[in-house]
Each structure stands twice: as structure tokens, then as C-alpha cells.
């Protein structure tokens, strides 16, 4: 089964059962952000995790098996993105990316922030002037190696 079909079936089941990403994450003992990432087709579940998700969402065996396959990452969003929310993150990197790069290099040296040894969290901060979105990107620093 194509991964886009799997994602569609997962989203349908999630809506039908009125579950949140947090509910599903709790069932597989993973973070909410990683669970959403995996079930949207960008990470691999273990057999045990896939079976728990399959049971919770009443998914077919074919879908459960697909969740354990290594995905083609980064292929679900066209570039530049057209969805307004995703585009704002693209815009953030276009505007603030050079400053982020400079600050990381100043504080850590010549290297990159890993998107593999990485964690992400999304929080809501209630504010009388309008609720705030707090996005935490937490990646291991990987220095460039000399040889």
C-alpha cells in the first residue's frame, strides 16, 4: 500500500475515534511530535509500536506492516511549501536562518545541528493578547570532522 494512502487511513481513523496525537503517543510510549511524524509517513515504527497503533485505530494488517517500512523522508511537502503554516517555517528559515547559523557556529564551532539525533516539542502558551506557539527544536551538535 502506498504511504500516502496509509497516512490518509490513519487520519480518517484518528478523526473517527476522536483521538489526539497525544492519545496515540501514549499508547506507544513515544512523544506526541515523534508519533505524529511517524504516522504522517516520516519515521519508522517498530513491529510492536505498529501493532499497538493498528489495534488502537483498527487498521488493516497491510497498513500495520507499512508502518514498519523505512520511508522516503522529506517527500511530502513541495518546495517552496504552499500551506500557510508550513510556509511560515520556511519563511522563518529564509529570514532567520543566517542568524541561527551564525549563532550556532559562534557557540559550538563549525558543524551542524542533527535532525537525526533530534527531538521536537510543540506547546501552547495561553496569553490574553493571543495564544502563543512554542516550538522547541533540540538536535545534537555534530562538528565537521578533519581527516
TrEMBL record:
Q: Which GO terms describe its molecular function?
A: cyanate hydratase activity; DNA binding
Q: Cite the EC number.
A: 4.2.1.104
Q: What CDD domains does this protein's entry cite?
A: Cyanase_C
**Active site at which residues?**
88, 91, 114
Catalytic activities: cyanate + hydrogencarbonate + 3 H(+) = NH4(+) + 2 CO2
Q: Does the keyword Acyltransferase apply?
A: no
Instruction: Print the keywords alphabetically.
Output: Lyase
- Gene3D superfamilies in the record: Cyanate lyase, C-terminal domain, lambda repressor-like DNA-binding domains
What the protein does comes down to: Catalyzes the reaction of cyanate with bicarbonate to produce ammonia and carbon dioxide.
PANTHER family reported in the protein's UniProt record? CYANATE HYDRATASE
Which protein are we looking at?
Cyanate hydratase
Q: Which gene encodes it?
A: cynS
Amino acid at each position: 500500500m502506498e504511504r500516502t494512502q496509509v497516512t490518509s487511513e490513519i487520519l480518517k481513523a484518528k478523526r473517527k475515534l476522536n483521538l489526539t496525537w497525544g492519545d496515540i503517543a501514549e499508547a506507544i510510549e513515544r512523544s506526541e511530535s515523534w508519533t505524529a511524524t511517524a504516522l504522517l509517513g516520516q519515521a519508522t515504527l517498530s513491529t510492536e509500536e505498529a501493532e499497538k497503533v493498528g489495534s488502537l485505530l483498527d487498521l488493516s494488517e497491510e497498513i500495520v506492516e507499512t508502518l514498519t517500512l523505512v520511508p522516503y523522508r522529506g517527500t511530502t511537502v513541495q518546495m517552496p511549501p504552499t500551506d500557510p503554516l508550513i510556509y511560515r517555517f520556511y519563511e522563518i528559515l529564509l529570514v532567520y536562518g543566517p542568524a541561527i547559523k551564525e549563532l550556532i557556529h559562534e557557540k559550538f564551532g563549525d558543524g551542524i545541528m542533527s535532525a537525526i539525533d533530534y527531538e521536537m516539542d510543540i506547546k501552547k502558551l495561553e496569553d490574553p493578547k493571543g495564544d502563543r506557539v512554542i516550538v522547541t527544536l533540540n538536535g545534537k551538535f555534530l562538528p565537521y570532522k578533519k581527516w
